[in-house]
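testing teh design pipeline on a random one, pls ignore if ur not involved
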């Protein structure tokens, strides 16, 4: 048996022969004594196996045959797979399923990449799509595509990123996902409005609005519920309380169950007299389980395009802000409510899952800030209880006696004034 180091290796190896067969292997150690012990143990194991005293080592397993490489589908070929997955994963959110399927179709409208494989879609192709989408990704009008906003382009990019991530992480079709950069707020995307209705503007709005926009506007202004929550509002969510009619303005309870994300949407709001009047009239007209119904057929729920069309027509009739609408009325309610409650109560009333979303809806106005300081000024302050004559910084500190008073104190106490000795200057 031989223990040695191979050229270029720092580890010892052993070599020995037994019954005409040579055994050669590295010990994996740099210590010679350890290598000799390993070699002796290996030789003893071979001898025991030959004598039937020990089971022989199993032969190494053969490597599995390589699976045939799956062809990478094109963006058009992957549409069916993506639609099926979204339809299953988001089965309860029909609006979300519709959004992803329509956005994916917009991706295919860009012909240069509709026949590219998913692995061939890289950052240059994505940037080219963004430039094209701003001008041609809208609806057809007179046979031509209309431009869209950067916010809409971001929706298409989000769909592309979701499809590529599904192909990479779940299906293992592609090796990586390219960087999909969306337009930022500084570039003009995701615009947020700070507009709130003034009392005069609100009266003009509801005085001119047709039904059902007028009723929806009153609900948004007095409760802060959003348009989708109104469209999903059913009669089982409305409960009038006769005992509350004499208790201020509260006339019942409105339970929000549908319309927003499941984690944030369920909440209970108070019905005031204005909301009660609107709900009673809408429920009396409805022939189905929904509160808002179609003007042509009260047995069918109201479609979202009806309110959009009525708001477009109303903006043409009256001179108002470009952002005026149901969302601005909800915005107005939350801004006003934020002056009278804490942020977490406001988050619950708004139905937001994240407090940061609530912060975007609340914009303190100048009169609200002034009102705050007026209220604080009327509060009783601790320093007001302490009578201070001269010093405000330290009201409990006693006044220093004047010079005549100090002389009287010295005389009363038989204290001799200190003798002042004038010292001659001494040379330095």
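output:
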């Amino acid at each position: 048996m031989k223990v040695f180091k191979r050229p270029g290796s720092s580890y010892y190896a052993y070599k020995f022969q037994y019954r005409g067969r040579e055994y050669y292997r590295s010990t994996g150690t740099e210590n010679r004594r350890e290598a000799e012990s390993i070699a002796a143990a290996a030789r003893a194991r071979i001898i025991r196996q030959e004598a039937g005293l020990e089971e022989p080592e199993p032969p190494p397993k053969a490597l599995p045959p390589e699976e045939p490489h799956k062809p990478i589908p094109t963006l058009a070929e992957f549409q069916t797979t993506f639609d099926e997955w979204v339809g299953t994963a988001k089965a309860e959110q029909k609006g979300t399923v519709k959004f992803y399927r329509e956005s994916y179709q917009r991706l295919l409208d860009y012909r240069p990449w509709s026949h590219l494989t998913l692995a061939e879609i890289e950052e240059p192709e994505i940037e080219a799509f963004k430039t094209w989408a701003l001008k041609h990704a809208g609806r057809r009008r007179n046979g031509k595509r209309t431009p869209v906003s950067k916010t809409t382009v971001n929706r298409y990019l989000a769909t592309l990123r979701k499809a590529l991530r599904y192909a990479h992480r779940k299906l293992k079709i592609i090796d990586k996902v390219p960087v999909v950069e969306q337009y930022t707020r500084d570039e003009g995307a995701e615009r947020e409005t700070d507009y709130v209705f003034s009392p005069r503007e609100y009266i003009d709005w509801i005085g001119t609005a047709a039904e059902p926009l007028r009723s929806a506007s009153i609900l948004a202004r007095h409760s802060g519920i959003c348009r989708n929550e109104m469209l999903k509002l059913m009669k089982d969510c409305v409960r009038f309380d006769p005992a509350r009619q004499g208790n201020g303005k509260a006339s019942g309870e409105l339970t929000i169950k549908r319309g927003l994300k499941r984690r944030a949407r369920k909440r209970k709001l108070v019905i005031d007299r204005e909301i009660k009047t609107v709900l009673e009239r809408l429920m009396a007209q409805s022939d189905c389980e929904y509160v808002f119904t179609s003007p042509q057929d009260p047995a069918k729920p109201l479609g979202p395009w009806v309110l959009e069309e009525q708001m477009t027509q109303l903006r043409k009739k009256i001179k108002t802000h470009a952002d005026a609408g149901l969302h601005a009325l909800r915005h107005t309610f939350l801004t006003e409510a934020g002056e009278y409650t804490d942020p977490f109560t406001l988050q619950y009333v708004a139905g937001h899952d994240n407090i940061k979303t609530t912060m975007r809806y609340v914009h303190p106005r100048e009169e609200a800030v002034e009102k705050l300081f007026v209220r604080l000024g009327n509060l009783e302050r601790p320093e007001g209880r302490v009578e201070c004559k001269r010093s405000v910084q330290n009201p409990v500190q006693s006044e220093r006696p004047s010079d005549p008073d100090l002389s009287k104190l010295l005389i009363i106490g038989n204290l001799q004034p200190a003798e002042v000795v004038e010292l001659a200057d001494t040379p330095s």
